[in-house]
Amino acid sequence: MKDIIGNPLRLKSVNHISLICKSLDESINFYQNVLGFIPIRRPGSFDFQGAWLFGYGIGIHLLQIQNPENIPMKKEINPKDNHISFQCESMGLVQKCLEEMKIDYVRALVEENGVKVDQIFFHDPDEFMIEICNCDNLPVIPLAGDMVRSCSRLNLDIMQQEMPQVVNQI
Length: 170
Hints:
Strand order of the largest sheet: 1-4-3-2
Oligomer: single chain
CATH topology of the domain at 12-71: 2,3-Dihydroxybiphenyl 1,2-Dioxygenase, domain 1
Helix content: 10-25%
Strand content: 25-35%
Order of helices and strands: EHEEEEHEEEH
Distance between the termini: 35 Å
């Protein structure tokens, strides 16, 4: 029991997020051409319209809603709304691309003890919030313990630990 106290369900990672959409084609286009996800096969036994996409270690499952007019539309980009966040290499490049694609966005800045994190928020076609950030600037500091790392650094360490196992299986 001691080894599962911090992880009672023995979770390994986030698998996917599921989002309802009013237009499957429009949402697929957005997640594929704006965020770089790739469409993947979904089980044919489903009796509803949808699409699965994958990228950056996470799946996005799009579910076609039967009554699109029932999706409440948000006009304001609110950084405090539900959202998914992606780490990027260049905030300037993200801003430039969004402007070229004529996607409205809001910028924010978080500053803590001299560390600055830039954020850009925008909506997908169904008004679900997307955040792009350079959050790796902010260390991940557990409330207990002494580990201090950035999210990407932590993921890199995990990937490097798993790499010898993958190489040995080839």
